[in-house]
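INPUT
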Amino acid sequence: MRMVFGKALVATAALAIATTALTTADAHGPTRRKVQEHVEINAAPAKVWAVMGNFQDMSWLGIVDKTAGDKGNEIGATRKLTLKGGATVDEELYKYDAEKMSYSYRITAVDVKVLPVTNYSSTIAVTPSADGKGSVVEWTGAFYRGFPNNDPPPELSDEAAVNAVTGLYKDGLEGLKKKVESGS
Amino acid sequence: MHDVPSRLHRRARRLILGVLGALLFGTIPSHAEEAFVTNQLSDDLTIVDLATSKPVATIPIGGKPAGVAVAADGRFAYVASPDDKAVSVIDAVARKVVGRVEVGGGPLGIAVAPDGATVYVADWYNAAIRIIDAKTLKVAGSIAVGASPSGLALTPDGKLLLSADRDDDMVSVIDPATRQRLKTVKVGTRPFGVTIDAEGKRAYTANVGSNDVSVIDLAEGREIGRIKTGLRPYAVALAQGRGFVTDQYDGTVSVFDVASLQPLKRITVGDYPEGIEATADGQRIIVANWESNILSVIDVAALKVTAEIKVGNGPRAFGAFLRR
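OUTPUT
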C-alpha cells in the first residue's frame, strides 16, 4: 500500500500532461497488462467468501478507510472507497456469482496519482485449495498504464502500473488472510 | 444420344485440367489453414495449425505486438508493435521475420490490400494511417483520419479502406487509390474492430463504449442498424449469415443474425476474448482470449466451443490473423 501512496508524491509536470490527455474519454496506451496474485488461507471457502464476498465492504483491504455504495451485490452496483489519507476510488460491479464465489468490477474513477492505471477491471475469487483443507483466493487485474500517450514518464509507465497493482494485491491478500485466520 | 457421353467426357476432362491448373498455379492452397496469433505480453507470435489444433511455431517479435494481418495469398504476415513503433514482416512459409519497417507513433491496427502490394497501419496516437509499400518496405505516405484509429479493413475489391476512429466515434471511408478520405460515418461509442462482409456491401464495428455493433451500408455511406452485445465488444467475425462479436468483459461471443440484425445467442469462451475471425469455409470461428491465453474454436453450425488451444501470454490477434 505504501507503494500506491508513494505515487502521490510523483512530480507534477508529467501528470499535468497525462491529465490533459485523459480528457479524451477512456483514452489509453497500447498495451493492456495483467496481474495475478493469490494467497492460501487456512479456512473453508465459504468462510473466506463471507468476509470478502460483499461488494459493499472492503474493510479487509488495509488501505481502505470507508466503503459506501449503492445496490448491494447487484450487477451495476457501485461503491466509493475512501482511502486512508482521503483519496477516493469509484468502482462498479459487472459480474457477481455467489455460487462460484467470484465477482468482477471495474474502476470508473481514480486519480493516476493514487493508482497509476486506466481502464482497470478486476476479478476476485475463492476456490478450495488443492488438498481440500483450505482455500485459495485469486485476484486478477487487467489495466492500461496511467499515461495514455506514447513514451510515458517512468512513474506512469507499464512497469509502474504493474508494480502498483501487484503491491496492492499482495498487501490486500495478506490482509484478508490475516483477517480470516484470526477470525476477526 | 451419341453426343451425351462425349460431352460428359469433355466436361470431365475440363474439370481435371482445371484442377491440375489450379494446383500448378497455386490457386488451391497447399497449406493447412493457420492462425497467426500476436501474444502482446510474451512479445511473440504463435502459429497454430487449425487442422490439427496444435501450435507449430513461436516467433519472437518484441515491442508488444497487437495488430496482425495475413496477406490474401498467405505469403506474408505483418505484425504491428506499438512499443517499438515498428511493423515486422513475417515470411509465413519459412515462419521467420524477414523485414521490419520503422513507422513511428503507435502502430496498432493493420491491414493488407487484397493484391498484397500495400500495407496500411493505424497510428493510434497521431490520427493517421501510414502506407507501407510491401515491395520496398518503406513508408510511402500517410492519410489523416479521426482520433485513435484502431481497426482497419479493405473491401474485397480493394477500392475502399475503412478506419475505426475510436475516440471520434466514427469510421473514416478512404479511397486507397487517391489516398483521400471520402467521408466519415458516425457509429456507436468508441468503435474498435471493423469488419467488411465478403460482398463488400456492409461493414460492422464493435463499439467498446456503447456495448453494441454498428452496421454500415457502404453504398449509402451511413449506419443502418445497431445490435446489442455483451460488455466491451472488441471485434466482429462473419460466417454463414451470422455475426460473431467478442465481449471482452463478459468472456462471451455474442452471435447475431445478419439479415434481421437480431441477437441470437451468447457463447461462453475464455476470459477477455479479443481477436476473432472465421475460417475460409465459414465452418469455424477462431477467438483469441487475452486473459486465459487460449484460442477458442467455435463450430458455426452448432454454435458451440469445440476446442481450446494454448498460445502465448496475452493473445490479442487484432486483425485478419488467419492464413486461409
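end of record. Confidence is low (pLDDT under 50) at residues 1-5 of chain B.
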